[in-house]
Every structure is written in structure tokens, then in C-alpha cells.
Specification:
The structure holds two protein chains of two kinds. Chain A is mainly alpha-helical. Chain A contains 13 helices and two strands; from the N terminus they run αββαααααααααααα. In chain B, the strands form four sheets. A six-stranded mixed β-sheet of chain B has the order 6-7-8-3-9-10, with helices on both faces. In chain B, strand 15 and strand 16 form a beta hairpin. The chains are: A mainly alpha, B alpha+beta. At the A-B interface, helix 9 and helix 10 of A face strand 6 and helix 2 of B. Chain A: It is a multi-pass membrane protein. Chain A: It is found in: Cell membrane.
């Protein structure tokens, strides 16, 4: 199969796709880098020029930056903890034989098919709205003051919404992993005198470690760039209480009309994402080795 | 320690009764083998004894205490699974230690037991490896080690050798037999391989469709099969079962003659036939004989070598005292 000829033929045939992908990635990256070293404000587009690292300076010393950085990490970490813990519990629950299993599994997966903007709007208007929302209604029904989730606890509310979206993904991956657990192993542990809790701790959880790693890695990639949910619910506010890095970049370039500083923020976000990635691979990447 | 008795035990999955009422007594220190074709309920029976399946009705007694409702861990039995069921993320040491750890034994006592088991099973060099880094035979030994350290009142083996290659199987068979001689603990062993059953057992339980066909020592089963099923199942190659006029001559519905209990001649004998395939094993020769007018293919086993070519006509004479006779219900006639 892999003669010299077939290998070069394969290379030629794969080249257009590779080239397209490369261009798709490199051109925006290079343009972002280019703008990040330029003065380019949309209100004064005629005054352009090289400014060195001034955009980076401005972005990193922006008081919103620190809170955006912390918010980003809290958001990612919060959603990861909620989805992994609940995902494991749900997966174990769904693995039990019960009537209507197929329908319940589809229902559990459903939130994943709802677009982020739509689900965030549904949560904002139907559930969390302090006047018309279901939660407010429930609170009033038992005589409590309705809680204005999105202004009292904006970041936690967004964590809740995003967790609801990603829980199905985690559940699904963990469920398939649980199903691949050899039942004889569980029986052996049962005969060895392990209680249900011990069987979970010593057999199920180690068996799931690889799937949990996959869930954490994939979710982190997507959670670092959460944007739509923030835009349609809190607009990053109140103040910067729910602004993450992605939203800050958007705010700088399109709300403050400063493309230069926005681009610098973009580059900073790329660097931070890589730091997180390296940290993650160091911490849990070994779980992926067979 | 290690006496197990089953009294009117049944098991149903939904409406399907896989084990009709069944009685069985297993004595202390016995090596009992459950044997039967696949799907005969032998594994289910073992799992009932282990407590991994609930009985539908009936009583299981272990050492004279009612264990029917006891959870598996409380029955004092240890099981070796077909897939070994080792914990892949734990080292061999931790695998063997697991039941001790679950029992809350202190570290020093654990280490002593693990080292003793590892020495007995030749696992000392592998204690820090993961199961994934071991060969099939070694994994099997780890599984046995995990069972030994618990000092159970009986060992349960569920087709433990079926994942091993032929050579290793013979070796492990011996090791398990020797282990039984050394520990003198009751062992219950499930297999579909009658050679394993014959070579290892003190007592064989032949099962078919959840029903015990016969219980007895290997030679008892070989020499005095209680019915046609046992006659056909025990022994290799299988017993020749002849029906019709030839059987009526001996006053039976069916007569059986083992392949090794016939003499062969080129010129004269009781039955005449044509040689089909001859399998030369060196020590033995199996000859498949056609056109005897008695049954489709009659199998003949001769010690040593014989000149027999495809298409040759030969004569067979059964050793009359080794002839088995069965009535119309398939039961043995005395």
C-alpha cells in the first residue's frame, strides 16, 4: 500500500485541504497579530500607525482585565465541576435498567441540541426573570421575595445556564464509558466484600478516569470562549461581574471601537488558552495513555 | 468448613425457568465439577451459589447455615471468573490485597498474606505490574491469588481456563489440581470441557437444561452412565449409540458402545463397514466407519497404528461386557 508512489500521490491529494485549513487559521491569526501592534480605532480610522506594545499595555492594565481573567477561570472551573459530578451521577442513573430508558436518554441529550443564544434567552426570560420567570413565580408561591438571578449573581447564573447546556455532553460520554465496564469486575468486587460506595470509588471511578479526562479537555476548549450566553443575558454586567476574556475582547473592539486593543486582547486570550492547555495536559493528560 | 447443600433450588428469568427444582450436596474438601453443553445452566447454578443471582425458590445452605439471602461477600466464598475480572488500574499487589483491604485488615497482616500467596503462585516478580502487562496464565494466577488470600470456605471457578491456549490450559489444570490437594478446600468448577471435568474432579455433576443428569465420580460416569445423554457427553470420541433392530437384539431401545471398546478385523466380525476418514494420532487411531447400516458414522478407536485406507471394508466386534443398554426413555438398563 505505502509505496513511494502511493505516498506522494496521497500527499498531493491531501494538499488542497491542508492548504485551505492552514489559510483559514493563519490569515485571521496573522491579521490579529498585525492589528494588535497598530493603532486602529474605528472612531478615528485615519490616525493609524505602529504603536509597539501599547495595545497590550492598555489591555493588561485595564481594570476589567483582572476581573475578566478571574471570571473566565471561575466560569470554566465551575461548569467543569458541575458537569463532571452531575454527569457521573446521571450516567450511573441512566445505566440502570428501567422502563422508558430510550426516551429518557434522548430527553437527557436534548439540551445539547439547543443553540446557546436560544437556551440562554429561554433561561433569562422564562426562568430567571424576576417578574415573569418561573423561579420568581415559585418564590412568590411560597411567600418569598423573587430573586433577580442575573443582577444579583450574574456569573453564577451564567455558570448554571452553561452547565445545563454541557451536562448532556458529559453524561453521554460518561455513560458510554460506564457501559464498557466489565460486569464481572463489579461482581468480583462484590464478592471481595466491597460496598456499593467502595465499588464506585475503587472500580467505577478509575474506569471512568479516561472519559473524565476527555470531557474536561473538550469542555475546557469550548468553555474558554463562552460568549453568546453572556451577550444575550447580562452583557457582561453588572459592571464587569460577568465579563470573561472573550467578552472583554468583544467589548474593546466593538463597543469601544478600539480594534487594536481588541486584537491585543485576542492574542492574550490565545496565550492564556495555551497556558491552560499545557497545565491540563500536564495534570491529567497521562490518563489518556493506554 | 466448605459444605454446601442445595435444596429444591430453582431459578427463573421472567417466565423462563432455567433451573427446575434441584438438589445437590457438596461435601467438605471435594473438587466438584459442573459440566454440560453451553446454555445448560451450569454457570447460573454457580452464580446462585456465589450469591450473584437470587434464587427464585429453594434453600442454599453453606456450612449448615442458611445462606439463601446472604449477600455474596458474607458467604465466605471466593470466585475466579472466566475473564479473570482483575482490576486493570491496580497493580498485582493491590489486586490481591483488595479483598483484605475491604475487610479492613491492617497493612502488616495484608503484606504477609500477599507475599505468601505470591510465593505459592510464582507471582513474586510481578507484584508491581499491572494486569495489562501480564500473560493470560499469569493473570489467571493473580485471580486465583486474590481468591486464596480470603481463605474462603470454598472456591468457585467459572470456566477459568477457556481463555487460555491449549498448552497453557493443561498446565493450569495441573496447578489448580495441585492447589486443591494442598489447600484441601472445597472447590466448585464449571466447565464445558469434559477432559477438564474427568481429569480434575472428585465428583462430576452433569447438567442439561438445568437438570442434573448424573452425579458421580469420573469413572462411574464413564463406566455406568445413567442415561443416553451422559453416555454421549462423557468420553472422547463420543460413544456410538445404535438404535433399531440391532438394539432390539440386545433387548434395548438403544445400545451404546465406546469407540475404544471395539476390536477390528479385515476378514470377520459382528458388524461390517467401510472406512471413511482415519485420524492418526500416533498413540491412537480414530477411524470413522460408514455404511454399517447401524448409524451414520461409527467411530472406532484403536491403540497404536493400523493400516486402514479410505474405502477399505472392515469388520467391527464390540466387547460384549462393555456394551451399554438403554430403554426407550434413554435410561440405563441393568
Amino acid at each position: 500500500m505505502s509505496t513511494q508512489h502511493s505516498r506522494s500521490a496521497a500527499r498531493i491529494m491531501i494538499a488542497p485541504a491542508t492548504f485551505l485549513l492552514l489559510a483559514w487559521m493563519l490569515i485571521p491569526l496573522c491579521m490579529t497579530l498585525y492589528y494588535s501592534f497598530r493603532r486602529y480605532r474605528l472612531l478615528t480610522p485615519d490616525r493609524q500607525g505602529w504603536v509597539g506594545f501599547r495595545n497590550y499595555e492598555n489591555f493588561l492594565t485595564n481594570p476589567a482585565f483582572t476581573s475578566a481573567l478571574i471570571n473566565t477561570l471561575v466560569l470554566v472551573l465551575g461548569v467543569l465541576i458541575i458537569t463532571v459530578v452531575l454527569g457521573i451521577l446521571l450516567a450511573i442513573l441512566l445505566d440502570q435498567p428501567f422502563k422508558g430508558q430510550g426516551i429518557v436518554r434522548i430527553l437527557v441529550i436534548a439540551p445539547f441540541f439547543v443553540m446557546p443564544t436560544v437556551s440562554a434567552l429561554v433561561w433569562k426570560n422564562m426562568f430567571m426573570n424576576p417578574v415573569n420567570g418561573l423561579f420568581a413565580y415559585a418564590a412568590k408561591a411560597v411567600g418569598l421575595e423573587p430573586y433577580d438571578f442575573l443582577s444579583q449573581a450574574p456569573l453564577m447564573s451564567i455558570i448554571g445556564i452553561v452547565s445545563w447546556q454541557w451536562l448532556p455532553f458529559a453524561t453521554l460520554i460518561l455513560l458510554t464509558a460506564i457501559q464498557s465496564l466489565d460486569s464481572e469486575q463489579m461482581e468480583a468486587a462484590e464478592m471481595d466484600g466491597a460496598s456499593a460506595l467502595n465499588r464506585f470509588w475503587f472500580i467505577t471511578l478509575p474506569h471512568l478516569s479516561r472519559a473524565i479526562t476527555v470531557v474536561i479537555l473538550i469542555q475546557t476548549i469550548f468553555l474558554l470562549s463562552i460568549f453568546a450566553e453572556i451577550l444575550v443575558t447580562t452583557n457582561g454586567g453588572p459592571g464587569t461581574a460577568s465579563t470573561n476574556l472573550t467578552y472583554l475582547v468583544y467589548a474593546e473592539s466593538l463597543l469601544n471601537y478600539d480594534v487594536g486593543e481588541g486584537s491585543a486582547g485576542g492574542v492574550v486570550a490565545i496565550i492564556l488558552a495555551n497556558i491552560v492547555a499545557i497545565f491540563l495536559m500536564r495534570a491529567i493528560g497521562k490518563n489518556l495513555d493506554a | 468448613m466448605g459444605q454446601i447443600s442445595l435444596n429444591q433450588v430453582t431459578k427463573s428469568f421472567g417466565d423462563v425457568q432455567v433451573i427446575p427444582p434441584l438438589d445437590l450436596d457438596i461435601n467438605e474438601g471435594e473438587f466438584v465439577v459442573f459440566v454440560g453443553p453451553s446454555g445448560c445452566g451450569k454457570s447460573t447454578l454457580l452464580r446462585l451459589i456465589a450469591g450473584l443471582e437470587d434464587t427464585t425458590s429453594g434453600v442454599i445452605k453453606i456450612d449448615d447455615t442458611d445462606a439463601t439471602a446472604l449477600p455474596p461477600a458474607k458467604r465466605g466464598l471466593a470466585m475466579v471468573f472466566q475473564s479473570y475480572a482483575l482490576y486493570p488500574h491496580m497493580s498485582v499487589r493491590k489486586n490481591i490485597a483488595f479483598p483484605l483491604r475491604m475487610a479492613g485488615m491492617d497493612q502488616a497482616a495484608q503484606d504477609a498474606k500477599i507475599n505468601a500467596a505470591a510465593t505459592a503462585l510464582n507471582l513474586t516478580d510481578y507484584l508491581d505490574r499491572r494486569p495489562g502487562q501480564l500473560s493470560g496464565g499469569q493473570r489467571q494466577r493473580v485471580a486465583i491469588g486474590r481468591a486464596i488470600v480470603r481463605e474462603p470456605s470454598a472456591f468457585l471457578f467459572d470456566e477459568p481456563l477457556s481463555n487460555l491456549d491449549a498448552a497453557l490450559r493443561v498446565g493450569m489444570r495441573l496447578e489448580i489440581s495441585e492447589l486443591h490437594k494442598k489447600l484441601e478446600t472445597t472447590m466448585i468448577y464449571v466447565t464445558h470441557d469434559q477432559v477438564e471435568a474427568m481429569t480434575m474432579a472428585d465428583k462430576i455433576v452433569v447438567l442439561q437444561a438445568g437438570v442434573i443428569e448424573q452425579v458421580g465420580s469420573p469413572l462411574e460416569l464413564y463406566h455406568k452412565p445413567r442415561n443416553k445423554f451422559v453416555a454421549g457427553f462423557i468420553g472422547s470420541p463420543k460413544m456410538n449409540l445404535i438404535e433399531g433392530a440391532e438394539a432390539e437384539k440386545h433387548g434395548a431401545a438403544t445400545i451404546g458402545i465406546r469407540p475404544e471398546h471395539m476390536t477390528v478385523s479385515k476378514s470377520e466380525g459382528t458388524w461390517k463397514g467401510v472406512v471413511g476418514v482415519a485420524e492418526h494420532l500416533g498413540s491412537d487411531t480414530f477411524i470413522h466407519v460408514h455404511e454399517t447400516g447401524l448409524m451414520d458414522t461409527m467411530t472406532l478407536r484403536i491403540t497404536g497404528d493400523i493400516e486402514a485406507r479410505h474405502g477399505d471394508t472392515i469388520f467391527l466386534s464390540p466387547e460384549m461386557d462393555k456394551l451399554h443398554r438403554f430403554d426407550a426413555q434413554g435410561l440405563r438398563l441393568v
